[in-house]
Amino acid sequence: MSTKKNSTIAICLTAILALSPVASFAQATTTFSGEAVALKANALGISLSLSDTGALSTCGGNLSTSVASVNVLGLASADALKSTSSGSGTTSQSQSSVANVSLMGGLIAADVVKSNSSATCSSGQASVAGSAEIVGLVAAGQSVLVSTPNLAISLPGGISLIVNEQTSSSGGNTGSMTVNALHVKGPSIDIVVASAQSGITCS
Question: What are phi and psi of 23, to 5 degrees?
């Protein structure tokens, strides 16, 4: 497991101190939010959060983390878990990807699972976008073709699968987008594969 997180707190403080009092009060600063998680689960008495970048500083910066593989018997197995989140200039963006995913003892499986989200400022207005890429998705033995966002699939045992789950909010100078490539829900089960959240508040 390798983790790389670049703190930008000192840079933010330096930038603030470098501004004159007149300039700092005259113009607000664009702020960012973001986080990417390759696999998070709360099920069967097990709680996991793997390849999680943690929250991006409001000042922006770059966060990245990766995990080679995970195998929690009966719950989840996956390879090449990677997540990044960054914010600078007029854009906040996050990405997460996982390979060879198997959930709930093979009830749900996929070859590649990826998510992307972004939030951008243009002329003081915020806009958001997001997408998911899922290759070789199989649920309860049936192949699933991913097309529109928020595809809901009912599975045995009261379990539901939401594919390319997207939630967003934007209005005026603030926007946020979250993409969960796969979201499994059921009795005492909540599993998310490849989650990417990005947000921005424009100056």
Answer: -65, -40
Closest CA to 28 of 146, 153, 173: 173
CB count, 10 Å around CB of 17? 8
Q: What secondary structure does DSSP assign to 126-195, as a single string?
A: EEEEEEEEEES-EETTEE----SSSEEEEEGGGEEEEEEEEEEEEETTEEEEEEEEEEEEETTEEEEEEE
**What does pTM read for this prediction?**
0.88
**Residue found under tokens 């599993």:** 191
Q: How many CB atoms lie within 10 A of CB 123?
A: 6
With a pLDDT cut of 90, the percent of the chain lying above it is: 80
Measuring CA to CA, which residue among 142, 145, 135, 136 is closest to residue 107?
A: 142
Q: What percent of the chain is predicted at pLDDT more than 70?
A: 87
- Containing 127, the helix (H) or strand (E) segment is strand 125-135
Please identify which residue in the block is written with the tokens 């840079």: 11
C-alpha to C-alpha distance for 12 and 133, rounded to whole angstroms: 34
